[in-house]
Amino acid sequence: xxxxxxxxxxxxxxxxxxxxxxxxxxxxxxxxxxxxxxxxxxxxxxxxxxxxxxxxxxxxxxxxxxxxxxxxxxxxxxxxxxxxxxxxxxxxxxxxxxxxxxxxxxxxxxxxxxxxxxxxxxxxxxxxxxxxxxxxxxxxxxxxxxxxxxxxxxxxxxxxxxxxxxxxxxxxxxxxxxxxxxxxxxxxxxxxxxxxxxxxxxxxxxxxxxxxxxxxxxxxxxxxxxxxxxxxxxxxxxxxxxxxxxxxxxxxxxxxxxxxxxxxxxxxxxxxxxxxxxxxxxxxxxxxxxxxxxxxxxxxxxxxxxxxxxxxxxxxxxxxxxxxxxxxxxxxxxxxxxxxxxxxxxxxxxxxxxxxxxxxxxxxxxxxxxxxxxxxxxxxxxxxxxxxxxxxxxxx
Amino acid sequence: xxxxxxxxxxxxxxxxxxxxxxxxxxxxxxxxxxxxxxxxxxxxxxxxxxxxxxxxxxxxxxxxxxxxxxxxxxxxxxxxxxxxxxxxxxxxxxxxxxxxxxxxxxxxxxxxxxxxxxxxxxxxxxxxxxxxxxxxxxxxxxxxxxxxxxxxxxxxxxxxxxxxxxxxxxxxxxxxxxxxxxxxxxxxxxxxxxxxxxxxxxxxxxxxxxxxxxxxxxxxxxxxxxxxxxxxxxxxxxxxxxxxxxxxxxxxxxxxxxxxxxxxxxxxxxxxxxxxxxxxxxxxxxxxxxxxxxxxxxxxxxxxxxxxxxxxxxxxxxxxxxxxxxxxxxxxxxxxxxxxxxxxxxxxxxxxxxxxxxxxxxxxxxxxxxxxxxxxxxxxxxxxxxxxxxxxxxxx
Lengths: 396, 396
What we know:
2 copies of one chain form a homodimer. By secondary structure, chain A is of the alpha/beta class.
């Protein structure tokens, strides 16, 4: 089956399009940013607050929720929507990225340009086999096995609106040969996922395939064609997108150019402000990224300043006495309170809950306004101008 | 000067009274619970959320705010109200409790029945002199001196509505002789605080004296009379209130029986549900306590169950699969979301921000409903019945 995806407007000068994706729990206005509800919450916020910020969908984490509290427990409580009391659409990743991040150790670094996360320290991949991945879970050290069918079963238990197929997320440093072999196996896993889902998948859940192929144009194109030819409802782009942004955008372009227009496209784990502009320009419909929420918890705020990568470190000593607002003229609920940068600096430095929470709110609101503005611009035929303005540092 | 304190109703069968205390930033309906905004926020909440829960006043911490970010910085930003964007009444403690908690090491334990807190580990009292206290701050290890005048100056910089005089907070384990000498010094410090405040205190700030005297009836009565005879606007009860609740209530009773009716009375650091009932019955007007907020951050929720000290540990393994609500029929904003105990258990166990925040909301709402119900009962002449019901576990 195909997803219920209506394209409302197609930009004339780029691949950008605006649409409405309808899934079991409602509509997602695209392009859309999807906040992470990794472990059953958008950290610090209530479901209603996420909705009030304008988000239609959140992303749940298959791997983490499987290990704790367990997808079986969540199923007994009526599925992830009821468990977390979010009644809108949910997309779940397949767990591939998290499993393989543990194994390669530096995959997460390579792909995301950051320090290894918790799981990579305490969990471990024991072997990657044709059938699936043997690994040690970080919660209890127990040996576990995740096959494509396991991932789909977990996502069935979570009862998300959109499930992602299980893939091997190849890092940047591996050879072309490894990438090619891995991508082929990912395609076989795609078929197994779709077969399992046909028989056992929950009512109303749709499935996205995942394009791999590393930074190699021919492999990306082959992979995009293989995924597009499958019975999947939508298409996600995963894996290593290159060492720098220009290469990332090229990889995305190679992929979307050969994808059919009518299937929705998700770009996995990408969501910096300039990446959103470029991704939307290359025809991406949905994005997920830890950036706005993680930055908020670490005392960083998004501001319309491309020269500083759209961010300011609120914990910086220079802001100690600042009586300026977090962001002049910002309409978000956090800025509406009127706190000075000096107050937020003091609070964020001490990791006070209120600061972490309200910086998260500010950052999510900033990203949401950015994407909403680009969507409006696509519909009104002014995408080029809106994109240029955002990249020039005009506040969304 | 006397505080603007109107007593609206006096219970016939107890010392309980209901009133309205008007200070520079507005009215406090008494009896009232005062949530802790120790370091410039009620942790996890915005000022508006605290207001929406029904609280009229918050308590800022003189000692912590002096060390970080500094009361001079807060003064440059327009005072604590503007700094934290709370436009209602603020009471600031004097810093005495925190300074002396560092010194005696186990003072906090003795008084509060809990493990020593952060400051007691890294800060240190170097000497207690007639002039004040020499100590090492926990933020920078620098030697500092706090005299009664210093405390009042800090509270002047914070520009709270109600300042507390600097006192020595005597612990439970010291001798009667030490308690007597310390209490006399606290009275001399009271005079110095009032003298300083007369000349230098900010416009509109009122001052509460503090009754000490440990667990000795004659010392408590002497202290209450000394404080009552001073020019202070209100009276706080501090120090060791005994080893168990019966003794605590007795100490409070000795004190309030000799206090003049027209001055508002604050009970420092006390606020368990049964303590609120007893304290109000003994004529206390305002209470502050870390209990509801600290419990929330540690995964504990208040419930109407006296046999379990009105609390449930939401992180308990037994709740793993619970589909029950946090508290049946609870009208608070956290319970309105509808999360199961199983969900909250999972979230609280992982110290997820949303859980810590919403348990804090639930606990504060529970305490506020308890106090509001007792207040209404005093006014309608049914205090006895309301008190008995709450102590019997009827939900407020």
